[in-house]
Amino acid sequence: MSEVDERISRIQQHKGIVGLLIVTYKDDEDGKEGVPVFVKSTMKPSEIEQTKLYGVYLSKLAVYARNLIRDLDPKNDLTFLRVQCKKYEMMVAPDKEYFLIVITNLDQKQEAH
Q1: Is this prediction's pTM over 0.85?
Q2: What is the distance between the alpha carbons of residues 74 and 99, in angstroms, rounded to a whole number?
């Protein structure tokens, strides 16, 4: 098992984890806004449409947040983005080429405490 797979496995063992996505974001041939490309997903196959939505919207949000931070201070960069709603918490850790997205069910997470 590779180091990446070991880390993914360790993250998934935490209570409330719904899924983990690794997404890369590439611009299209015309240089227009790109589309996310899924590298890995631990979401259930029955949730493929929901997985695509998470990947598309959260990676776009992270790109916009990164651009905003760089516009405000070119020496700064986005290191972590956390979005919370009533039921889920989505955490995005951007890297140079990838976004690591972890989705947590808050109800299950709170039951563990």
Answers
A1: no
A2: 20
